[in-house]
Amino acid sequence: MNESIKVLLVDDEDQFRATTKRILDKRGFETLAAATGEQALTMIKEKPDVVILDIKMPGISGHEVLKEIKKISPETPVIMLTGHGALPSAEKAKDQGAFDYLSKPCSMDLLASRITDAYRQSGHDAGNGDSEKLVRDVMIPISAYSTLAENATLKDAVATLKQSYLGRDNTSSLTESGHNSLLVLSSSGKMLGVLAIEDIFNAVVPAYLSAPKPSTADSIQYSPMFWRGILCAQLAQNANTRLKDIMSPAPLTIDADANLMEAVYSMLQNETGRLAVTDQGEVLGIIRKQDILFEMGRILKE
User: Fold this and answer.
1) Domains in the chain, ordered, with CATH?
2) What is the pLDDT of residue 82?
């Protein structure tokens, strides 16, 4: 989990800064935000564990801020954010002591992973520095997911998922993959299932399109006229369908302290791409195949 990691995010783009802070907070980080290099150098006194620093900013540039941070707090790891085509500038930052650099658009999964790596490699959790991460270390916290009650409707689900996308940074400097599905909960808060976009698609496709066809019909092509109006009609018909009737089952569970190889094995054996992470019966989060892939990339990079 990331509760103890304090992050200072420095970026002059208001929307990017606000969106990234919101997402990192939901991931369990304590996120401070600065709009300028000058403000960042003042806030470094709050002793963040990791700094996320944009290279190109008005006033004091990211390179100058990095240089000053290394004078004030040389042990603080700094991850640089760079625009497309700015590789030489990013390499210069690494030469100046930056922990790493990431290019915009930046995956939130990757950013969160590198923040954790920087925190650990800067001397925190020193006793476990050389050990493999556990499932709890790479999962997505349950708080990062949108949730709805089992009696909510398909219409509610579409609105909720749409809002999660609208909440992202429209500058395309940020990508997040945690909102392609939502969790369906009981009245007591127990996870009953997962509703993905594919489940919504399956709910609105007419049954006759999935019915077995004669072999002679395999080559039939429907005309544009055939498709007209079907989507609107199906949405009107299924808008009030309850999520409990169209959701996928709740993911299989895995203990939060399990090794990642156990998670890999479980996913392969059960042909699934996600597992619910539990601790003494309580669901703490979800671990997905891409979360493990990012951790594999980190291990290979070392």
Assistant:
1) 6-130 (3.40.50.2300), 140-294 (3.10.580.10)
2) 84
